[in-house]
Amino acid sequence: ARIANIMHVQRAAGATKMLSFEQEEDLENEEFYGDFLERMLPNVPLPRLMEEQTISMRLYESRTASLQRLVSFFVMFHAMGKRVQDFWPAVSLGMLRYDMSRTHSIMRIATTASPVS
């Protein structure tokens, strides 16, 4: 499938030109986000190009990048727990165990109904 993007770029006050690109290879070979736009629109000032990309970068940061950070935290935390789980039996000659699939928290949250006065 070919990638087709349509972008509105304001070149002058009140004048809008619609650009349509179907160049999959150029989009895939971008060195950085916006490289393709910078090459396709040499007359448009760089601050204007950056302004055009603001919303897509905010969407990327709030959706994709935050999910990547969350998953990497889960993977890192799981690996740390696995190392602790494997550490205790070796150190204590099998006397102490730590099962990371169970909680070892002693804290309990008391949820009793309180009377309304």
TrEMBL record:
Protein name, entry field: Uncharacterized protein
Taxon lineage: Eukaryota, Cryptophyceae, Cryptomonadales, Hemiselmidaceae, Hemiselmis
